[in-house]
Amino acid sequence: MARRRLHGPALHSSVFLLFSLLPTSSAFLTPCRPALQSQHQLSHPAALSTPSPFCDRQHDGRLPLSLSATTMAHRAPGTANLDWANLGFEFRQTRSHIKFVWKNGEWSEGELVADPYVKVHIANTGLHYGQAIFEGLKAFAWQDGSIRIFRPQENAKRLRMSAERLLMTAFPEDKFVEAVRRVVADNADYVPPFGTGGSLYIRPLLFGSGPRIGLNPSDEYTLLIMPIPVGDYYKGGLSPVSALVIDDYDRAAPRGVGHVKVAGNYAADLLPNLLGKKKGYPIGLYLDAKTNSFVEEFSTSNFVAIDSSGAFVTPRSPTVLPSITNKSLMDLARDEGLAVQERAIPITEVKTLREVAACGTAVVVTPVNRVVYRDEVIKIGGEDGGTGPVTAKLYSRVRAIQQGEAEDKFSWTVKV
């Protein structure tokens, strides 16, 4: 008898019948993807991926509030099929993101979703009026097999501050931390294994999803939290880079939104950033918009330095985003016995600085050994241009805490 091959609806029906006959144990449940509802989903890689037999996702793509012990045992850090040594810093599809919607005066309970595409109203305020903010934080695998998130409470606070500035409904801070833990747990196998230097980058995005044609805040908001395994932001890790001073564009206006993590702030940097990279500079340094004479911050990270007196210095400005990594470095610098100063730094002072670095969640700490200002090339740290000793020390300390190789004396990490 010739074998009959199943195609299309017949195949889907047979698969459904197969799963309906299986026992609903924690070891073998429904596929790790949403029900196929359209031709678009049929052609999308997320819909075509092979489901894990150790998945307890519901048939519509959502995950129950609790995960079985069997499922979690098969989601140990680093068990996803990825080249952990060559991750780079780019988007990679993971199992799920978590989605919350604020509507009719309350936030939803949240759902874990596999489909990376979101259906939104064409008149949503996020796209039309820029009511969109985001965050960035990381989770790390420790040697004992646990997963720790670095300072999520601080990201929750900063997300709230950004929301308040754009008249958006803020997401509750305690609920934010639990949401991050929940999505990291569901994607535990995508956390780079201990010792590889990688991390699970977590990107929360909050935007106005309700329709508005007039300039008014939205009546609906959507929060998405997506996890992505990453390596170093700049190739070479702690290797120094050269920075180009951007004095023909402004990052943020005085009394504007430079102090909050608004999506539009980064869109404004795309052109200057591209122009700098074409000249061979991976990072740009902005000056203040009012006088064009004081250091503000790098394109995507804060400016930190060791001045001629040996003090740790960083700009104090209402247009600078308060970096959680910078805040951590200041605490560590004080712990090392260094004086810490948040003050105005004239661009003319840069030539006297002993060390300069960019810092942020994505870059962690990146040394800067050359600053090019107009026709002047300023060499930092002497002719050899290596990583400064204080920069190296602070980098090592923050990384050791993040990865569980040093005591977390500040209680910065949260266990998943």
From TrEMBL:
GO terms for molecular function: branched-chain-amino-acid transaminase activity. The keyword Signal applies. Transmembrane segments: none annotated. The keyword Cytoplasm does not apply. Its cofactor is pyridoxal 5'-phosphate. The modification N6-(pyridoxal phosphate)lysine is found at residue 261. InterPro entries: Aminotrans_IV, Aminotransferase-like, B_amino_transII, BCAT-like_C, BCAT-like_N, BCAT_family. Residues 1-27 form the signal peptide. One of its GO terms (biological process) is branched-chain amino acid metabolic process. NCBIfam families: ilvE_II, PRK13357.1. This is Branched-chain amino acid aminotransferase. It comes from Nannochloropsis gaditana. The lineage of its organism: Eukaryota, Sar, Stramenopiles, Ochrophyta, Eustigmatophyceae.
